[in-house]
Design goal:
MFS_Na/Anion_cotransporter, Hexuronate transporter, Growth Hormone, Chain: A, mainly alpha, single chain
C-alpha cells in the first residue's frame, strides 16, 4: 500500500486518543464565532435605538450595515495569508484581542461618522476570523469529520447572531453601548483562555509527520499556475456564487429582519427577540443535520459531488423557496418558521462550501477559505444598502419594500444553487 495513504490515516488514529483536545478546539472556535456574530449583530438589534439617537434614515442605516463589509473581504485574505505563514493560533488570538479593544471603544461613539468608523474597523479585524478558524480546523480534523465540525463552528454564528437575540435585546435596555462593552469583556476572556490552554497544531509526532508529508507532496505537485487554475475552475466559481447569494440572506437577517418582524409582522421588541431566537435555534438544528447527512454520505460513498454538492445544493433550492413564501403567506407564525428553516437550509452551505474550496488546494487551505469568505462578504456591502434603497423607494408602502428585498434575495439564492448543482464537480483525486 502507498506510504502516503498510510500516513494520511494516522491523524484519524491519533484523533481518537486526543478527542478531548479536539472537543476543546471546536468549543473555543464555536464560542469565538458566537462572540463574532453577537458583536456584529448588536447593531441590528439596536437599530431603532441608534437611528433615534442619531436621527438616521433608512438610507443612512443601510450605509451603517454596509460599512462593516467595505474592507472586510481584503482583510480576510490578508489575515488568512498571515495565518498560513505565522500560524492560525497567533492570528486568532490577535483578532480576538482587537475585538475587545474595539467593543470598549464603541462607548465613545457620538454620531453617524463615528458609528461608520467603528463598523469599518470591526469589519477589518473580524474579516479574517472565519477562514483562519476553518484552516485551524483543517489542521486537527480528518476530511470525513470536517463537515460536522465546520457546522459546529458555523452554529456559533447562528447562536451569536440569532439564538442570543433575547439576551442582546435585554442588554440594550441598559443602553446599546453597554451591550458592546459586555461583549468586549467576553472577547478579552476568550483571548486569555485560548492563549493559555491551546496549541498551534496537533502534538503527536505521527500527526506532525503526516501533515508535513501531505503538505510537501502537495507543494511539489502544485505550481502557482495550477493554483490559479483551481481558483478559476467551475467548481470554485459556482461555489463562490452560492456562498455570495446565501450570505446576502445572512446580512439581511442581521440588519433588516428585526425591523421586518416589528414593522411588518407587528411584533413588539421583546416578541421580536424571542422570534429571532426561535429562528436561530431551528436553523442551527437544520445546519447541523444537513452537515451530518453530508458527512455520512461522504463516509459511505466517497463521492464528493453527491455528498457535498447535491446535498448542499438541493437544501439551498428548498431554502430559497421557503424564504420567498414569506411574501405570499403574511402570517407571523409562518414567517418565523419559514425564516428559521430557510436560514438553516441555505446556511448549511457555510459549513460545506469551505471544504470544497480548501480541498482544491490543500496546502493553501487558509487562502482558499479566505477567498470564499471574502467573496461572499461582498454581498455584505451590497445587501444593506440595496435593502435600504428599496425600502426608501417604496415611501409609504414599507411592506412592499421589504417584500421586494426578500424576493430578490430568494431569487439570487435559487439561481446560484441551480448553477452550483449543474457545474460544481469536485475532483475526487484532489480529495484523497
Amino acid at each position: 500500500m502507498d506510504k502516503s495513504l498510510l500516513m494520511s490515516k494516522k491523524p484519524l488514529e491519533s484523533s481518537r486518543k486526543y478527542s478531548w483536545v479536539l472537543w476543546g478546539i471546536i468549543t473555543f472556535l464555536f464560542f469565538g464565532n458566537l462572540i463574532n456574530f453577537s458583536e456584529k449583530n448588536i447593531v441590528g438589534y439596536s437599530a431603532e435605538l441608534i437611528m433615534k439617537d442619531f436621527g438616521l434614515n433608512s438610507s443612512q442605516w443601510g450605509l451603517v450595515g454596509s460599512a462593516y463589509y467595505w474592507i472586510f473581504p481584503i482583510a480576510g485574505i490578508i489575515g488568512a495569508a498571515f495565518s498560513d505563514r505565522f500560524g492560525t493560533k497567533k492570528i486568532l488570538s490577535i483578532l480576538m484581542l482587537s475585538w475587545g479593544v474595539l467593543q470598549f471603544g464603541a462607548l465613545a461613539i457620538n454620531g453617524f461618522s463615528a458609528l461608520i468608523l467603528y463598523r469599518v474597523l470591526l469589519g477589518i479585524f473580524q474579516g479574517p476570523f472565519g477562514p483562519v478558524a476553518l484552516s485551524h480546523i483543517n489542521k486537527w480534523f480528518p476530511a470525513e469529520k470536517r463537515g460536522v465540525t465546520s457546522s459546529l463552528f458555523t452554529l456559533g454564528a447562528t447562536t451569536g447572531g440569532l439564538v442570543l437575540a433575547p439576551v442582546i435585546v435585554g442588554l440594550t435596555t441598559f443602553g446599546w453601548k453597554v451591550a458592546f462593552a459586555v461583549f468586549g469583556g467576553v472577547s478579552v476572556i476568550w483571548f486569555l483562555l485560548f492563549m493559555i490552554t491551546t496549541k498551534e497544531s496537533p502534538s503527536s509526532i505521527e500527526q506532525k509527520a503526516a501533515t508535513k508529508n501531505t503538505v510537501e507532496n502537495s507543494i511539489q505537485k502544485k505550481s502557482s499556475k495550477e493554483v490559479v487554475k483551481a481558483i478559476f475552475s467551475p467548481t470554485s466559481i459556482f461555489t463562490l456564487f452560492l456562498a455570495f447569494s446565501s450570505f446576502i440572506f445572512v446580512v439581511w437577517t442581521a440588519i433588516w429582519m428585526p425591523n421586518f418582524l416589528t414593522k411588518v409582522t407587528g411584533l413588539t421588541s421583546s416578541q421580536m427577540g424571542v422570534a429571532v431566537s426561535i429562528v436561530g435555534i431551528s436553523s442551527a438544528a437544520i445546519i447541523f443535520l444537513v452537515s451530518m447527512v453530508s458527512d455520512k454520505v461522504l463516509a459511505k460513498t466517497k463521492n464528493w459531488r453527491l455528498s457535498r454538492v447535491v446535498v448542499t445544493g438541493v437544501s439551498a433550492v428548498i431554502g430559497s423557496m421557503l424564504l420567498a413564501s414569506v411574501v405570499f403567506i403574511p402570517n407571523p407564525i409562518w414567517n418565523i418558521i419559514a425564516f428559521g428553516v430557510a436560514y438553516g437550509l441555505t446556511g448549511a452551505n457555510f459549513a460545506i462550501a469551505p471544504q470544497i474550496m480548501m480541498t482544491l488546494v490543500p496546502e493553501r487551505s487558509g487562502l482558499m477559505a479566505s477567498i470564499l469568505m471574502s467573496f461572499q462578504n461582498v454581498g455584505g456591502m451590497i445587501a444593506p444598502v440595496a435593502t435600504g434603497f428599496l425600502i426608501g423607494l417604496s415611501k409609504d408602502n414599507i411592506i412592499q419594500g421589504y417584500n421586494n428585498s426578500i424576493l430578490i434575495v430568494s431569487g439570487a439564492i435559487l439561481l446560484c444553487s441551480l448553477l452550483f448543482l449543474l457545474f460544481v464537480n469536485p475532483n475526487l483525486k484532489k480529495q484523497a
